[in-house]
Amino acid sequence: MQDNATEVTAAGIARLAGVGRAAVSNWRRRHADFPKPVGGTETSPSFALAEVEAWLRRQGKLAEVPLRERVWQQLAGHPEGPVTALTHAGCVLLLIHERPTVWLDVSAGSDERLTAMLPDALEKVITPRFGGTPHEGAVRIPTGPELGPSAPLLRGAADLAAELGARQTFEFLLGRHLDANPRQYTLTPAELARLMADLAGPARTVLDPACGTGALLRAVAARPGQELHAQDSAADLAALTAFRLALGTQAAVRAATGDSLRADAHPGLRADAVLCHPPFNERNWGHDELAYDPRWEYGFPARTESELAWVQHALARLRDGGTAVLLMPPAAASRRSGRRIRADLLRRGALRAVVALPVGAAPPYNIPLHLWVLRRPDKAPAQPEVLLADAGRFAAEGRGGPDWQSVRDAVLDAWQTYDRAGTLPERPGLARSVPVIELLDDDVDFAPARHLPPPTVADGAEQLTDVRARLGETLRLTAGLTPPPARSAPPARWPLTTVGELARGGALVLRTGGNGGHARVPVLTDHDVLAGTAPSGHLPESEEEAVLTEPGDVVVPVLGGGAVARVIDDATAGAALGRNLVLLRPDPAALDAWFLAGFLRGTANNRQASSYASTATRLDVRRLQLPRLPLDEQRRYGARFRALDEFERALRLASRLGGQLVRGMYDGLADGTVTPD
């Protein structure tokens, strides 16, 4: 059943039909019977999904709206907002997951019967699954009238669950919501969450007092009789985390809403582990009203030290010997206002390790965040030392994030060796265990970079020698690839066609990037295409079928206004296509891939196919033009375009190696590991 109240924006229509926004604007101008707006604003109108779907089908532009897209549009256009819709969907998906026969009985019949019977059915699942009464936790059972507008969405979500499973359906919908609203949420990357959970070690009782979307608790390894406790000041995040955990694990889930510092929902908890990604740099964290709180065992945090309040809250919720891992801003390791608390954490053996992460590990991506590993002291350490580690060397170029496998291997090996022995032999440039007495000076600054020895002189010199040799080889290659002198010719008057016409004629297949996919699939992002780098992104985990690249595909970014097209080679093949990318898969019997990519990069070609907003330029790939030429002539042009691409890649590599050599020489001369002779 289609919901007539569900609204869809022009962007949603474009996604339904697999076209660009410009095409939707053209339809509105050229077709008098195009559905009229039913909401939104004059500059950003919304339309009734049912009317749009019917119009697209009449025009032959849509055979059938995919079930996933229909459910997503029902959720995104819900009259009470997508968060309410997602919460209602979570309730039903949990019912389907726990008691599928009850759902079959409740959903039989009319929507009125469904919404009347559903609250009682939900109570029988939500109360035992989340513990206590529904009014005490993060999940509130909606009433029948509240569920009324959601009935079509709930039936659609159930149909989708029959295809994907309840957990995968919720992950798909949540992933799409988070991806559509990136500025509303501060997310903890899955690889970082996994590292933090591994540092904490096996745990039966785990708490996240600032749970967000639940990434940290989802990373915890399952154990029999496990209890996962979560709290967040945002009611919607606490509820969504509860559903994610209940659908993805057999553990008892105890989620609550409220500010953990001001209104702790778990005051009596003594957990085996606490994982936390707290909000950074908060001035209004409760400094005035919490002055005499018993949690401040290590000192009352200054107004500017909200992170040290979270550190002490985590320690207060641990059992003796329990471990806490917190993501911290680097300034928390050195600000003068926090030095007394840091000193007490060191003296009493509560702080066990500080790990500097590479730039790009988590938001904000432009600074190297720290991990603090703490342990509630059960006895004074015999030889008090603190592990300091710096994984900054594993940062990746561009926005792709660090080399997580190398980060994991280096950090976990150092931590496990130190945790067993209480000390760690020095690892230059990477890690060392520092006696506490060395850190208890006037600053109590334990930023790892200030206490780690630099890489050995031999290693540094050998690395720079290797970079220099590679640079010389690349420069020689670049000189050999330099294009020959250009010969002038009068402008060609070829008959032209467009990408849209070629797609309709079957000469190529056009696909757009997705918003979800199977976990751990490397994703080719728009930045990777622009920078000419390897796939570096990740898609939100879902069962949505990702578009995978194949050799000979041509990938084009649609945002930014640059004339760029990339031909997929064997090294890049198999990556998932990211957002804001369009993939063109030419028929080799009709089109040469390099010929296609080369003409798509023409500046004038891109200019005539672009539309402009106040802050961005969007490319309508279907309007890009290329000449109608015989295949042999295409290949002649394609060979020249391919040679230009090789020259461009060589220039980029030379630039990267040159920058690396210059940085290394400056650093080596400055720290004495390289002589000036």
Automatic annotation (TrEMBL):
CDD domains: AdoMet_MTases (cd02440). Coiled coil: none annotated. Signal peptide: none annotated. It holds the Pfam family N6_Mtase. GO terms for molecular function: DNA binding; N-methyltransferase activity. Keywords: DNA-binding, Restriction system. GO terms for biological process: DNA restriction-modification system. Gene3D superfamilies: DNA methylase specificity domains, Vaccinia Virus protein VP39. Residues 170-393 form the DNA methylase adenine-specific domain. PANTHER family: TYPE I RESTRICTION ENZYME HINDI METHYLASE SUBUNIT, TYPE I RESTRICTION ENZYME HINDVIIP M PROTEIN-RELATED. This is DNA methylase adenine-specific domain-containing protein. It comes from Streptomyces glaucescens.
